[in-house]
Specification:
Length: 595
């Protein structure tokens, strides 16, 4: 049982005995005492002041005295207004540390067959371009969130919806057909997704030139856009695709296969994966069918021009188009179709969509529509809405080719990690293979940590140079501390130091602080799962690492002559390294054993 639970249960007993008030121990939440006050845990006593008919100070004092007399874990206390600060018996912390050391998968809760089934959708790429920096944040958030929810005892299905149809896909196809000269990933030596992305940019270049010509001939912008031969050809290609024209479908399948092979390579290097991938080309007709079913039931209505709408004004929203007058579907319809297929495949209890905050309204509407169409999780679907990520030089645009590709970004991060590690002597004595492996782990760790340590709801600027620093709140700083701890433990092993009984040792203030920080880990994981925030894990691990480094700076481990004290410090180091490793793995980040 954790120290928080022990104190909560003891306080509940004290309140019952002193004031005859029944209180659930689960409703009592001990907080870590603020640094400026003496104590390890603080209890707020205001909830019982009325029943006690005494001042907050008197209530705090009475509960504190009861705890000292009846709970062996409590050494002493002090009261500041309505706050009871409790000092835990120093040797009691040894049993807390011992429990952590003995607990397999400490901080994690295993799922059972009865656990809720949560589906997390992330990535959602288009097959007309490679993954870029925005996708990187999306993928890392989605993957980390999935791992955290698993760690909280949920069954999790990681899923992806690939946008593989529509006018934007036809633009790349048309550009390849016109100007590609039969180019393939093999003939060009390019990854398939990069090759197709080049044609998407090429289409936009020719389209803009065409518009300028038409405008120079006297047309307005709007007239030029309607008259553009290129855009008319792209629309005709989409019409033929929808009619399942064999030539167009063949071209589409070939180019998509190139892109999927490229995506798979990027996902693998990024360290993210999926249990099930859905494709819009398979879901949009399912959505149309579901909307027509809603129309029959009176959930939707049809306008004179034959388009189908949903009236959401009773929920404070507006009217939403679901099928155009020509019968073609919109994004909302596709999302309904995807939901239908997913619900057929899995008995989902909760659905989480990891999508940027520009789609907030879309998911408000989707939630209402799914609920009205009979999906039991529709009303409670979660839109994990995150902020945009920019570079120091500003926003990115796919059409203009100014995005930072995920592959290029990962290459740059790994190269930077190699240079910085080399300069600081972190790769001294490494073989070429070891140096490559460490550079990869550190470079990608820096990227992931920098993107995940920020509150996901906030917009952020990604600064590659800042992220690779070996000092401060960065991935490399945490990874280096982990490698240092593992080095100490290896040296202890080589010296033949075995773990002996340290239960009678009275830990010092820094050791207690570190044990208490380790004891917080399960609660941090639970809170990260409840609030859908990988940033809580990231910043917890950083604080833990800072705490350990202060301890390591002030106290010797290997040169400590007292065997019991040395054992305590070795155990503390081992537990810290395990929690760092577990915490970072919840962020999808590897930690190197040597550095």
């Amino acid at each position: 049982m954790s120290i928080d639970n022990i104190i909560a249960q003891a306080v509940a007993k004290a309140v019952k005995e002193l004031y005859n008030v029944e209180v659930e121990a689960s409703s009592i939440t001990p907080q870590t005492t603020k640094k400026e006050f003496e104590g390890n845990l603080t209890i707020v006593v205001f909830p019982w002041v009325k029943a006690a008919r005494k001042s907050p100070e008197a209530v705090g004092t009475e509960i504190g005295e009861w705890l000292v007399a009846n709970e062996p874990a409590v050494n002493r206390f002090n009261v500041i207004k309505g706050f009871l600060n409790i000092v835990i018996e120093p040797t009691f912390w040894n049993s807390v540390l011992n429990d952590i050391e003995k607990t397999e998968n400490y901080g994690l809760t295993a799922a059972t067959e009865e656990s809720p089934l949560v589906m997390v959708e992330y990535s959602s790429p288009n097959t007309n371009k490679p993954l870029h920096l925005g996708h990187v944040r999306n993928n890392l958030l989605g993957y980390s969130l999935s791992e955290i929810l698993k760690a909280c005892g949920n069954r999790v299905v990681k899923t992806n919806i690939v946008n593989d149809r529509g006018i934007h896909i036809c633009k790349s196809m048309l550009a390849w057909k016109k100007w590609g000269q039969g180019a393939t990933p093999e003939s060009t030596g390019k990854k398939g997704d990069h090759l197709i992305g080049d044609f998407y940019v090429l289409f936009d270049k020719h389209y803009k030139a065409e518009l300028n010509e038409l405008i120079e001939k006297g047309m307005s912008q709007e007239e030029a856009e309607k008259a553009s031969p290129l855009m008319l050809e792209a629309r005709e290609m989409l019409r033929l695709w929808e009619q399942k024209d064999p030539e167009i479908r063949g071209l589409w399948e070939m180019m998509n296969e190139w892109v999927y092979a490229g995506f798979d390579e990027t996902y693998k290097r990024m360290g993210v994966d999926f249990d099930k991938i859905y494709y819009e080309s398979n879901t949009y007709l399912e959505g149309k069918e579901k909307v027509l079913e809603g129309l029959e039931k009176g959930i939707m209505y049809r306008k004179e021009d034959n388009s189908v709408w949903a009236d959401l004004t009773d929920a404070g929203l507006d009217h939403k188009l679901l099928l155009r007058s020509d019968g073609t579907s919109v994004y909302m319809t596709q999302d309904i179709g995807t939901a239908k297929l997913r619900y057929q495949d899995y008995p989902i209890d909760k659905m989480i969509y990891v999508v940027g905050n520009e789609q907030n309204y879309h998911f408000q509407v989707l939630s209402l529509l799914l609920d009205r169409l009979g999906f039991k999780w529709g009303k409670d679907l979660v839109h994990f809405s995150y902020g945009m990520v920019e570079l120091p030089e500003g926003k990115m645009k796919s059409r203009e080719g100014t995005v930072v590709d995920a592959d290029d970004l990962m290459d740059e991060m790994v190269n930077s990690a190699r240079e910085v590690s080399k300069e600081l002597g972190k790769l001294d004595g490494c073989t070429a293979e070891e140096a490559d492996a460490i550079s990869e782990i550190v470079g990608l760790g820096a990227l992931k940590y920098f993107l995940l340590k920020v509150d996901p709801r906030k917009n952020m600027t990604f600064n590659p140079k800042e992220s690779i620093d070996f000092n401060g709140n960065t991935g490399p700083f945490i990874q280096y501390t982990y490698a240092r701890i593992r080095s100490v433990l290896r040296k202890a092993d080589e010296a033949g130091y075995s773990m002996t009984d340290y239960s009678k040792v009275e830990p010092n203030e820094k050791e207690i602080s570190l044990i208490q920080r380790l004891a917080d880990f399960p609660a941090v994981v639970a809170e990260a799962g409840r609030t859908y925030s990988p940033a809580l894990i990231a910043n917890y691990v950083y604080d833990l690492v800072k705490e350990y480094n202060q301890f390591y700076h002030d106290y010797s481990i290997m040169r400590e002559e007292n065997e019991a004290i040395r054992s305590l410090r070795l155990c503390l180091s081992d537990c810290t390294s395990r929690v760092i490793s577990t915490g970072m793995s919840l962020l999808g980040i590897q930690v190197p054993e040597r550095m």
